[in-house]
Sequence to fold (301 residues):
Amino acid sequence: MDSKWQVLDFTGYSGYLSYERGRLVVGDRSVPLAEVDFILVGQSCSWGYGLIAGLERFGVAMAVCDWRNIPISVLYHWSENTRVFARHNAQATLSVPRAKNAWMRIVKAKVRGQANVLKIKGQVSVSQELVSLSKAVRSGDPSNIEALAARTYWHNFLQPGGSFSRQQSSSDFVNAMLNYGYTILRGRVITRLVTTGLSPTLSLFHRNRSNMFALADDLIEPFRPAVDSVVLDLVNDGSVELGKTEKKRLSGVLAEQHDESSFTVRSLIEDFCQEFALYVEGTRENLNVPIWNGREITKDG
Fold:
């Protein structure tokens, strides 16, 4: 990658990963951890305590993947944020109306982002339909507009009136590319939540007794269209598998920056986690949620 912030994929690597003087060492090659954002490792990788300590020192998250290259755990460092207790307490005592308002704004931003993805791909009428749906979202999304918009979005994702089905467990290459990109986003969100002093378990909407990262699944939503856009580009370029080229393009999502004044996905994830922390503490009246516009991410006032 050309970006300073790299996502390194070792799911197909067989060997030992080590740490030496601020660098990740792989065989006879090395890379400064100060330039690494996220690492994926597979079943054939091994590593020692030195690497874990190095990842903690430089704030790098690492996802451990199973034989299907699907992440089964994420390693992240303990937060040293001085407001950890205050923010955990604020999350635990967040009023229902404020939680519902925050979820409404997240859903609106996600659906608007999906509309923009399809608009830039030439599906103007479907895009307008999604924009109308985003305007119909109410506090807490009681009508489940998110699901209705998702059905419309994925049905037209590859082509107007197509038959694509978004299924996380599916083995087809389009779903595999989406899963891969979302994994990278989720790892970044989890890391920033912890660094910001938030509890990744205390969520707004997602509920699952075995999911300790439910809040990450809430806050990742506005950023998913950034991955979707890259996947569509890959499909249009002729990709038929999740290979090295596809992984490299998807890894670059965090560094997406389309002009000199635009924000990167990575920086906006950091800003959004901080924004959410201030919102739950009451410093912000409304949650300011980023919106993907098909070329860059903008901020919703």
